[in-house]
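input
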Amino acid sequence: MTQLARFASDFVLRAPVLDRTELNGAFDYKQNQLDAEPNYSDNTDSFLRLMPELGLKLERSRGPVEVFVIDDAAKPSPN
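output
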């Protein structure tokens, strides 16, 4: 579940996704393709259709997020 949350965060939703399922271990799942020709152009739609099939749901919430702050930037001096 942690890998699924990381995949959703990095490649599908492009927003932080937290795994709050408390499920551990590895799971195998094969999704049935409804179309004769697979369409990989919209990962978000496919991913959101997958969630109810797995018995999972996404809930929007607010919370702390890790932030990387750059205070200063300068060109390196020629040595």
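quick obs: The chain has a mean pLDDT of 83.
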